Amino acid sequence: MEQITLTIEELDRLLLLDDGDAALLYLCNKRGKNPTLADARLREAQKKLSGAGLAPPIGAERPSYDAGEIKQGLLTDPGFFAVFNEAEKLLGRLLSSSDRQILFSIYRWRGLPPDVIIMLLHHCAEDKPPLTMKRADREAAQWEEAGIADQDAAARYIEQKESSRAMFSKVFKSFGIFGRAPSEIEKKYVASWIDLGFSAEAIALAYAKTVDNTKWPAWKYCDTILRRWHERGWHTPEQVELYDKKPAPAASGAGGGYDRTQAALRKVKGGS
What we know:
By secondary structure, the chain is mostly helical. Helix content is about 65%, strand content about 0%. It contains 14 helices and no strands. α4 crosses α5 (about 80-90), α6 (about 95-110) packs parallel to α8 (about 135-145) and α11 crosses α12 (about 220-230). The protein starts with 7 loop residues before the first helix and ends with a helix.
């Protein structure tokens, strides 16, 4: 009778993982069989086995699915069938062969649940129309990275993303950026300030002080101001005005520092 042998060390490592998928994959590897696991679960199990020294690292490349596999998925998997139909409704056309490949890989390889994928497709269609499968795939990669596994998590992610976009828009408006897309460096600066907990109004105030002191919208100088405020726990204009006792430069006509500060704050709040 053919036998499979595990050493005590192998068994101990496997038990420490306390993971059924990893155990199944390890035994299948020993037996030379393929486990019946979805691609996302398979990659996670492989990752755990690799971390425990029980398997080589899994490849990160997206698998290629042939037309037969995708057709079989449509015929036997109600979840993928629902996702497929919703995608065609939103696109208003039949899915091309490349579209089918991408959609099936979002479902099988990325492992997002069907209801979450449907929410993702609707979000992409409404956020930046028209919907394309390539854009849906990029968004799916972000959702997978964020660990979105149910509708509640997806709804929170979409809400946070929309809130962040509105915040970015306010900040760039206060910096006078119109008619062009912000550069990657500008985006990184603003993202770092938002992560530090600053309001759009506080960032606009730092910008106004930057222009007062340098006569130029120097991003690095503005970053220095905001990081100094962050160290002192000042994240709103009210906190800055209350605790920052440094005398402001004297105003010189309509272009004085006070006027520029107030104009910047009005711009963020939507005033004229």
